[in-house]
């Protein structure tokens, strides 16, 4: 896997905010396929509710990690510490 960068992580967060806004516009009823925010060049998705994304995005230093890492959704701190995980 490629090196983790905060720039990549922030670019993916910006894209995920756009996905979240569109999920609100279209009242998306199911888990939303967000992009993995692990910070590496990663093609994984994080399928979770829009409310979960908004909670994570509201916390400084929290990021989503997803199916490319063996779980549907997990929340990590910027230094890699796991906050919450769900299979
Ligand atoms: Zn990833």
Write a concise keyword list for the protein shown above.
87 residues, alpha+beta, 3-stranded antiparallel sheet, binds zinc ion
Question: How would you characterize this protein structure?
Answer:
A hairpin with a 4-residue loop joins strand 4 and strand 5. The chain has 2 helices and 5 strands. The model has no long low-confidence stretch (mean pLDDT 88). It has one domain (6-86). Helix 1 crosses helix 2 (50-57). Helix content is 32%, strand content 25%. With 87 residues, it is α+β, with helices and mostly antiparallel strands. The strands form 2 sheets. The protein has a 3-stranded antiparallel beta sheet, with helices on one face. Residues 36, 38, 40, 42, 44, 65, 68-69 line the site of zinc ion.
SSE topology sketch:
Blueprint: H1 6-25, E1 32-35, E2 45-48, H2 50-57, E3 62-65, E4 73-77, E5 82-86
Antiparallel strand pairs: 1-2, 3-4, 4-5
Helix pairs in contact: 1-2
| SS summary, helix count | 2
Helicity, as a percent range: 25-40%
Bound molecules: zinc ion
Strand % is: 25-35%
The neighbouring-strand order within the major sheet is 3-4-5
What is the typical, i.e. mean, pLDDT? Answer: 88
Q: Provide the succession of SSEs.
A: HEEHEEE
Task: Sketch the major β-sheet.
Answer: 3 strands, antiparallel
Q: What structural category do the secondary elements indicate?
A: alpha+beta
Q: What overall form do the CA principal axes indicate?
A: globular
Radius of gyration, rounded? 12 Å
Number of strands: 5
For the record, the count of structural domains works out to 1
Poorly predicted regions are: none
| Distance between the amino and carboxyl termini | 21 Å
